[in-house]
Specification:
By secondary structure, the chain is mostly helical. The chain has one domain. The protein is built from 8 helices and 2 strands; from the N terminus they run ααααββαααα. Strands 1-2 form a two-stranded antiparallel sheet. The protein starts with a helix and ends with a helix.
Length: about 140
């Protein structure tokens, strides 16, 4: 599914820099969620939840995951449990990926000290690096 101009304008900036498959996954889910929940935060959360089953955030964009499934404990929850959960999200980082995969992502993002980090530390460091990369990209777009 190729998105039209109006749909592309509705995409979050990180998805505008991602593959057509990531874009269509998000938009398809967003439109379905809006039919049920209206145009608001709930619909966008649902769309990101769907996206995170097949994609992970790397820097300022989303890439296909090797294995489909939830990205973190928050993403694994469904329905009202997810909406009212106090569980922190990994912000698009695939926290369920192997440590070797996380080290590889950290290397691509040039995170220092990655080889000595625990898996949880890698997830946090990647999330921070992703935020920085997204912010840089937004500044460059202006």
């Amino acid at each position: 599914m190729v998105l039209n101009k109006t749909e592309k304008e509705r995409l979050p900036s990180t998805l505008k820099r991602s593959s057509e498959k990531a874009q269509s996954t998000y938009m398809h889910t967003l439109e379905s969620a809006e039919e049920v929940h209206g145009d608001g935060e709930a619909a966008h959360r649902i769309a990101f939840g769907s996206l995170k089953h097949s994609f992970e955030k790397v820097g300022d964009h989303w890439e296909a995951k090797e294995t489909k499934g939830p990205s973190d404990d928050q993403d694994a929850k469904r329905g009202r449990a997810a909406l009212h959960s106090k569980t922190a999200t990994a912000e698009g980082v695939d926290a369920y990926a192997s440590k070797a995969h996380l080290v590889d992502v950290a290397k691509r993002l040039e995170i220092k000290g990655r080889s000595k980090m625990t898996k949880a530390q890698l997830v946090d460091a990647i999330a921070k690096a992703n935020q920085s990369a997204s912010a840089r990209s937004l500044r460059n777009e202006e």
